Amino acid sequence: MSNTAIPFEFRVDVAQDDIDFMGHVNNASYLKWVQAAVVSHWQALAPVEAVAEHLWVALKHEITYRRPAFLEDDVVATVLLEKVQGARAFYETIIRRGTEVLAEVKSSWCCLDAETKRPARLAKDVIDHFFVKGAD
Fold this sequence. Notes:
single chain; 3 helices; alpha+beta; Thiol Ester Dehydrase, Chain A
């Protein structure tokens, strides 16, 4: 059995305050977009109880910028959960304008228990919500 991640598309609103002195989106805005996209992915696919019981904090982002984004652009971030190990989750987020890749982001996140704020492992049945099962 192999698992394929369910892609999640997150529409990005490019705001005036995302634009830097060169007239395109500032690099820091991509981090804000990835944060919003990953959290929305979790909220959309995880069971309601799991969303209520867990929080996510970013541990690392590695961004490869391919093309600049501009104020009027229609931008979409596609989020894929690559794997979960213990309390850590590894994501890939591709930010696009149409078919053009603007940035590729690899990030790792730590799952926290919402009450204790301590690292928490997700149950397998929760993780399964993020993958389509297929036979090999």
